[in-house]
């Protein structure tokens, strides 16, 4: 058993989300008790009662989780985080910036996904992930303080991996709607192009830049609320009404004190160390990749028409993470090692710093007024995970889920502002 446990841990712990797995486990009990192994052999009407009972029991579990989250927030506020029951039950759980209406979100998702109607398939990781997303969006739209900043990852969140944000993208109208409601939109991407002309960002984000430029509805100050933080937390660009496009913002205007203290020699030795690990992996595993070194990052990308398999990419990322974590320089700086799906990168800085810098630059926006939308929330080897330390989050699987989550957000904001609501 011990060996099996350790193998499972070594192989999978970095890909699991402790909180989601724990919720799945709780929902599995009513599912099993009301599963109908004989379902479909009988007529469907004969198990309608089971659906009603299961729905009530799932909802009761969600209500209890909601209270545990409230207890966590209360203990954080009182300076007694160690007393939070949820932290004892799920030690890996993060900090909650807002309450989460889990029961209400469950009913919304149950209507869409027929979770409690299923007799043979238990509530899944994706069911729980989407319930949490909906709860987060509901809570932000009606919170005591208004939502002020939505940050979005690029690849897989705004556009398909390695692609661009084109004019016909369905996410553009909903981003414009957020800007119209005085919510700033920051694209916080790992893609790092340090060139102050911003040419590469302008190419990849052309759809939204042109849409903001052309908009007749947005006020100039709302247009200026479109920003891009590149290289995790290294390069900031902002839409300029005068230039009609993105312009580079001098780091002096936005850099956080903790980043200012970083020494350039330390930065380069961290990247040297990361490059050494990536190089050895490339040789030992005979990877079809090419190593790329930048000022603030080092990575391995596939050779033209070649592919590196997921397992090998994970080996590289876990290897780099481990080597850096145990190094002196790795303890001095913040870095982010992640598997981008077809490549692996080690960046200086991370999305926690990227989101915090934007919050500060835009006038000290707090975590409970910020939402980060991303696709990479595994605990190791994923780059959106760190944003959880600075903001509320929504975890999407592809760009269509981003559109859905933002449309839902806009709808809930409008409902919360309707007279009499
Ligand atoms: P994100 O999903 O928007 O954070 O972008 C991640 C992807 O950006 C990676 O998978 C890479 O393909 C690409 N990329 C390009 N330049 C860099 C870099 O300097 N660091 C990390 N990723 C980069
Ligand atoms: Mg991504």
List keywords for this structure.
single chain, 421 residues, alpha/beta, Rossmann fold, 2 domains, seven-stranded mixed sheet, four-stranded antiparallel sheet, 16 helices, 11 strands, globular, binds inosinic acid, binds magnesium ion
What this model shows, in words?
- There is one protein chain.
- The chain is of the alpha/beta class and 421 residues long.
- Helix 2 runs antiparallel to helix 3, helix 5 crosses helix 6 (125-141) and helix 6 (125-141) runs parallel beside helix 16.
- Strands 5-4-3-2-1-10-11 form a 7-stranded mixed sheet. A 4-stranded antiparallel sheet has the order 6-7-9-8, with helices on one face.
- The chain has helices spanning 2-12, 18-33, 48-77, 85-89, 102-113, 125-141, 171-180, 199-204, 206-214, 220-223, 257-260, 264-285, 310-325, 328-332, 351-361, 399-416; strands at residues 149-152, 184-188, 226-230, 235-240, 245-249, 289-293, 297-302, 335-339, 344-348, 370-374, 392-395.
- The chain starts with a helix and ends in a 5-residue tail after the last helix.
- It has 2 domains: 11-141, no CATH class; 146-421, Rossmann fold, CATH 3.40.50.1000.
- The radius of gyration is 23 Å and the shape is globular.
- The relative contact order is 0.12.
- It is built from 16 helices and 11 strands.
Question: How do the strands and helices of this protein lay out in sequence?
Answer:
Elements: H1 2-12, H2 18-33, H3 48-77, H4 85-89, H5 102-113, H6 125-141, E1 149-152, H7 171-180, E2 184-188, H8 199-204, H9 206-214, H10 220-223, E3 226-230, E4 235-240, E5 245-249, H11 257-260, H12 264-285, E6 289-293, E7 297-302, H13 310-325, H14 328-332, E8 335-339, E9 344-348, H15 351-361, E10 370-374, E11 392-395, H16 399-416
Parallel strand pairs: 1-2, 1-10, 2-3, 10-11
Antiparallel strand pairs: 3-4, 4-5, 6-7, 7-9, 8-9
The structure holds inosinic acid and magnesium ion.
